[in-house]
Amino acid sequence: MNERALRVLEFNKIKEDLKRYTVTSASKDIIDELQPYDNIFEVTEHLQETKEAFELLIKKSAPPFEGMYDVREGISRAEKGFMLMPVQLLRIANLLRCARRFKLYISHKEEEESYRVIEDICEGLVAIKSLEDEIFSAIISEEEISDKASSTLFNIRRALRDKTSSIKSKVNSLVRTYSQYLQENIYTIRGDRYVLPVKVEYKGTVHGLVHDQSSSGATLFIEPMSLVNLNNEIKELRLKEKAEIERILQDLSEKVYDNIVIVKNNSKILWELDFIFAKAKYAGSINGICPEISQEGYFDIIQAKHPLIDTKIVVANDIYLNKGISSIVITGPNTGGKTVTLKTVGLLHIMAMSGLMIPAGEGSTISFFKEVFADIGDEQSIEQSLSTFSSHMNNIVNIIDNADEKSLALFDELGAGTDPTEGAALAIAILENLRQRGSKVVATTHYSELKAYALRIEGVENASVEFDVETLRPTYRLLIGIPGKSNAFEISKRLGLPNYIIEEAKKGISRDTLQFEDLIQNLQDKNIKAQKEVREAQGVKEQAVKLKTKYEEKLTKFDKIREKATIEAQKEAKKIIKEAKEESDKIMKDIRELEKMGYSSDVRQKLEENRKKLKEKLEKVEIDITKPKENEKPLEKVYEGQEVYLTTFDKNVIVLSKPNNKGELQVQAGIMKIKVKLKDLCEIKKNKVEKKVAKKKQINLNLKQVSSSVDLRGMDSEEAIYEVDKYLDDAYIGGLGEVTIIHGKGTGILRNVINDMLKKHHHVKSFRAGEYGEGGSGVTIAVLK
Q1: Has this prediction a pTM greater than 0.70?
Q2: Which family would the database say this protein is a member of (predicted)?
Q3: Bind-site residues for ATP
Q4: Which residues sit in the known binding site?
């Protein structure tokens, strides 16, 4: 993309606004390099990443960038094997933590919406929690190393505290002893050594080493000889502390060096993510949307707003270039908004092609252009001795040399700055040349010749900015399809020019010209109304299509979940049957072993018969899993409005359509309309409730006796949870209403674990601690549903 267009359209101001939403200076550097991408695939992908980040901000709030810094300097030092400072290590640890947390931030359940582009970017993030934890445990702040960084450092600092305490006691004693010779009854420190402020006339009285003298010369700072050894010991410990800290920092720096590839990769990905989420935050600030991308050179920007104009005063306009139209010629009064319209078209295209969402209405489409050229503004150059016309012409020559069918050219006041007749002719020739080579053009002009050109040439369309004659002010609304009316007579009349002068002026204009102006006014009024109705209808249509697509996707996802659940249920049932078969065979094997030890052949024969009966029953149950029951015979024919039973949902439904050639039809289940297979439909089940109740009662008769309590004492937490879960299943099937769980008092850990489990258990209605006589806090009473 040419730099002049980016400068003229003020894309640099957009980038400066974007920087305000970044966390690190590294991301700001990425924004500095931001330019429109040079292929449609990149444009689409970068717009998608911005859209996904925008949705994540709405659904999951701010991303976990807390504590993330620009650590390029630290990484560079580590890469060369240098020792890192505590602040650099701490920031690298923060970066690693951000990488780990971001993996959690974008994680989601299988059935939830995915974020393809951002998830692909995050695939490269690698958590190194061991290094992260080691740095955080060793470094407390940007200037302080923890005592726990190493046992050696801990011992040194403990010895240092002891020595410091001893020397303070000693020096306080000396202060009292020499108080009459001291300038003040305090001690002080010079060069990390404890000294006394001795009056200069008593320097011979206090024996020791002179370290310093006051500015007045009246005080000498003397280290008494009795403190020399203690001060030396403290100095030695401080040197050891410093050496140990350097060793710890060097050790951590080496570990960063060992993982430098991962650290560098994580940092680059996180800075890229910071940039992406800055785009999303900026989109929120301008109420941006993600536009569709066209490759055909046509665009339709609904309710477009210039992003650099205050949202309270900016006027939204529909700006579009329909198929078959290559150029738009915009006319209208000065300060009417023509230049702003030009800049809005160019800037929104550049923003979208740079992966930024744009301030426009949903359903907007922009086109992918290889180049956007802009000849806007007065760039008169005194140094180059160029007039306004010459400056514009230099730029137009460059556009003519480089524009092709993949280019968008924007011209403000094309042909201005010279003789009107020659300027108009030149403007028409330039527009025609660009039209013939397939370039898309939006141009503003005051020349009426260009209005006529747009009316005469196919593929060129007139447009105008609206002017309110009543208020004598522009409305800044763009009207595409209608050339602008001059309104000179109406404006003059409103300003008080006498009627006889206006009538005299009209005599100098041909009747055809006046009728043409009136026709323009009439068409303008009709076009405003027609455009409004078409836009509203188009918006409703697009909304309906989106809703249809959205619910079709939900229905497809629902069908997949249903099929998956059915398959999983059948697998689980087959697994249970298989385990039951294996268990029965094991029991029979054990019985045969017992029989060898004394059972008669008659007993063996009866056992074998029972085993066969059991096997037949299990096989029958297995067959029943995959085929309908007697009262669930599949229907061969159905009719619309028929009430039938849907086996996969265990629900009565209403038939809405006849089966297609695939055997599929639509039914209504409650408020949902779903597509099912004919083979899954049966006649309505009768007395379903009574049968279920009778079946439940019959099953309960054959159940083993279940105890009203379970004892967990002596078990660990995992074993206890497993035991309680199994026991609650048995108690529920056994029909028990209330059970006692014995966990003992102890430290209370087991009780808390069991209580947490009971809160979520599907069989438990409520629970409480045991009362006096029930076991007190050593038991928990659970009430079952």
Answers
A1: no
A2: Belongs to the DNA mismatch repair MutS family. MutS2 subfamily.
A3: 332-339
A4: 332-339
